[in-house]
Structure of FAD-binding oxidoreductase:
Amino acid sequence: MTPASPSDPVLNDLVDALDGRLVRAYDEDWDSARAPWNLAIDQRPVAVAYPAGPEDLRRILSAARADGHRVTVQPRGHGPAGDVSGCILVRTSAFDEIVIDERRRVARVGSGVSWGALLARLDGSGLVALAGSNPDVSVAGLLLGGGHSWFSRWRGIAACSIRAVELVDATGELRRVTAESDPELLWALRGAGGLFGIVTALEIDLYPAPDLFGGTIVFPASAAEAVFASVATIMADAPPELSIFFGLINLPDIEQVPPPLRGQTVANAEVVFVGTAEDAAPLLAPLLASAPVLADGTRPFTIGHLAEVAAEPIEPAATLEWTAAITSFAGGDEAGLGALARAFREATPAGLTVLGIRALGGAVAEQGADATAVAGRLDARYLAFAGSFLTGQGHADPEAVFGPLRRALAGSTLGLTLPTYLTTGQDLTHSFTPETLERLASVKRRLDPDRIFTSNRPLGPGSGSSSDTD
Ligand SMILES: Cc1cc2nc3c(=O)[nH]c(=O)nc-3n(C[C@H](O)[C@H](O)[C@H](O)COP(=O)(O)OP(=O)(O)OC[C@H]3O[C@@H](n4cnc5c(N)ncnc54)[C@H](O)[C@@H]3O)c2cc1C
């Protein structure tokens, strides 16, 4: 049952003071307002705020201080941690500006802007930004968490493209953070970006890419071992312009999936190449010859169509997730990736839906350790993601779903991963070394000594911060 009337005078005043909106437990849209993208997570903040601008952010901060609450930002909710109790949860949808400066190759992007919206605006410009695979994720959410992009092998961890960050800090001041104004804070924001303030806008680098080629190639699931081995061979000396995300998927029996593939298990290779079809052809020929091809969706495309390559779901869904950064396989790539394919088959009856593996290398491996809080720490060769899409009220047993993958990867993982790859309940001790965590904690103490801000990805215990969480 929801409370019949408001009982908190500070929040009552905030409702009146805001130009935007504050949603609380007795409001009709409370359940949709508080829900993250991952519907398996039942998060219960104190209230959900939709500020109209920086002045509203100051009002929210004052109210949080007066009431002893904390503030957390969740633009789209693709990476929720689960625990936002005691927090006012801020959604930045009103911060929606996009300004493209083609001459300077810089985009100014509000912190509520999704990748889909930014890439649509870049379409036809011949310029690209370091986008990930999903158009519904926010630009801020991906970049402030490090971010793995289709273009990471070419241009590095996506956070490195951040030139400037504008944020409302713990005192309510609107700061502009650049490499000149505060290099240490900029370093920290490029990976641990939710800990220091409410970001209102980012300025990011754009890169010329007049030709793009790519799409998904679909193979029978039985050929997964051959396909994975072929991708590993290609990527061992591929140019950084080529990215391949590959894996296995149990396709749902739904209308959106074309009939021959509907309800089937398939292996896939999702390709993005910065260059022409002619230059991509010799690189991809061994892959196309590695197994019978069920469908080949590769074609020239423009940046506004990037999301079609992976065609990931954008509607909120209940998912159980697992990720790992793979260093190397003791028995070599062919054997190690083959073991992962077999683990996928073993875990399918327990509810495993998808396994996606991204080949790293290129600029990710070369990025200087000081470029971001992430770079230089991601000393891995592959990023793996596995997910179980839960239907109805279904609950899957995480050990049954992910145990086979974990066992197949024993001794082959880094133990640390990108902050954007952290799953529910994981903190930044799963992304950074103790030295980096201490450096981040020191920035936190300087910027937010009272710890008014908390993040989906807090620093974690033993990281030199004054609290057990952040
Ligand atoms: C289907 C899917 C595909 C994905 N693909 C990729 C991918 O290709 N590459 C990749 O790296 N990741 C990927 N992710 C992970 C995703 O990038 C992260 O979970 C990201 O943080 C989610 O963005 P969001 O906009 O939903 O942010 P939310 O989950 O809403 O927030 C994430 C965190 O970002 C910080 N934050 C966001 N905005 C602000 C702000 N304005 N001020 C201060 N802090 C802020 C906060 O710490 C917040 O806790 C994917 C996730 C999903 C579900």
